[in-house]
Write a structure and sequence with these properties.
Elements (H helix, E strand, L loop, with lengths): L1 E6 L5 E7 L4 E5 L2 H6 L8 E2 L3 E5 L4 E4 L7 E5 L5 E5 L6 E4 L13 E5 L6
Parallel strand pairs: 3-10
Antiparallel strand pairs: 1-2, 2-5, 4-9, 6-7, 7-8, 8-9
The structure holds zinc ion.
The site of zinc ion has 9 residues, from loops.
Length: about 120
């Protein structure tokens, strides 16, 4: 297991995630992720392995469709930082582009068929 630090662009939302070493990413083809274009962590992590440090009222929440997944973003800079998955309540994926010193463009990725999930 490895610990990664990350955050939004302006720094109002920071997080620490503990997971298997990140060697690849995950991209999703759902209507929201297509628009965000973010590369996500491949394995969902339990809530206990994601420590969130956000300024008061900094974290925005967006939900759509069945409203099971919880998509968080920084209200100040607008960056998507992490979300609670639709299929596994209490499990999160993070935006790999938010992780300090991780070159997301060097990573291969798998495609998640979120388009047909909901
Ligand atoms: Zn921000």
């Amino acid at each position: 297991m490895k610990t990664y630090q990350g955050g939004c662009h302006c720094g109002a939302v920071r997080f620490t995630v503990t997971c298997e070493p990140i060697e690849k990413g995950l991209r999703c083809n759902c209507s929201l992720c297509t628009r965000k274009g973010a590369m996500m962590s491949p394995e969902p992590v339990p809530e206990a392995d994601l420590q969130i440090e956000a300024d008061e009222d900094a974290l925005g929440l967006y939900q759509f469709g069945t409203k099971t997944a919880r998509h968080f973003f920084c209200k100040s800079c607008g960056v998507y930082t992490f979300h609670e998955t639709a299929r596994w309540a209490g499990y999160y994926r993070v935006n790999l582009g938010c992780i300090d010193d991780l070159d997301v463009f060097a990573l291969d990725y798998e495609l998640f068929d979120g388009k047909h999930l909901l």
